[in-house]
Amino acid sequence: MAVKKRSSAGVKAKTVSVYLYADEIQERRPVLLFTAGQIDEVLTKAEIQAVPFASEYLLGLCAWREQVLPIMDLVRFFGLSSSGKDEGARYLVVRTVDTLSPGSAENIHSEKVLQRCVLKVSDQIINGDIPADCEVIYPKQAGFAPVFVRGLFRREKELFILPDIAAIIHSNSLGGAE
């Protein structure tokens, strides 16, 4: 399958790149990529309340601005090998809009719901523009389930992962969807 070149001529979207504490994928360093509007806050620490019988990637719950949010580790979620570097970890409060369709299939109206979660990430967080010299690759080529990835782009030294936060939040109810 041919790799598509991503054309971003004239496109300027502010992004936030977060390097993961994970081993390389296809000889590239894994990097989470978000739009700047998805990031509510970067926390240097979080008080985590463990949740019994939770999935390995769900570290627990924390209080943030009078809300209870799940704290997730995407290195574990995606089944990546940890690089062992965990000191200096940060916690990223991320938001997403989930579209819920109430009622039956005949109901064409959908409701948009704002959801938040906290991601355990590295301290290497970079604001900037979308890299222009990336190639699009398909999630399965890098071992990712397509339902959890909105996009996957590679450069010479990085593999940029656009996670589908809404799908990840709902993953326990998906029953292993691919």
UniProtKB/TrEMBL annotation:
The segment(s) forming the CheW-like domain are 17-174
Enumerate the Pfam families for this protein.
Answer: CheW
Q: Can you name the source organism?
A: Candidatus Electrothrix marina
Recorded superkingdom = Bacteria
Q: Which GO terms describe its biological process?
A: chemotaxis; signal transduction
Record InterPro entries? CheW-like_dom_sf (IPR036061), CheW-lke_dom (IPR002545)
Q: What is this protein called?
A: Chemotaxis signal transduction protein
